[in-house]
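Narrative of accomplishments. A recurring question from our advisory board has been how the design workflow behaves on a single, concrete structure rather than in aggregate. To address it, we present the structure tokens for one chain from the evaluation set, followed by the sequence designed for it. No filtering or post-editing was applied between the two.
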């Protein structure tokens, strides 16, 4: 699943991402695409115990793959 957050003003990308993670099952993975590195989201993901990996894209945006932790 891919959640495209490009073109949204903060904090909308983070809010959309956290809402989507809430509806997912443990172990599921989502990829989000943001215009910039989501520094505040990283802190939230770390606190929640989610794993994440960031990949810069050719258009200057970032693809962040997030795996929901077990609960």
């Amino acid at each position: 699943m891919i959640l495209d957050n490009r073109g949204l003003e903060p904090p909308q990308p983070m809010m959309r991402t956290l809402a989507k993670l809430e509806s997912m099952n443990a172990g599921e993975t989502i990829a989000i695409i943001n215009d910039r590195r989501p520094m505040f989201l990283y802190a939230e993901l770390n606190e929640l115990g989610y794993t994440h990996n960031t990949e810069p894209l050719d258009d200057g945006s970032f693809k962040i793959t997030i795996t929901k932790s077990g609960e």
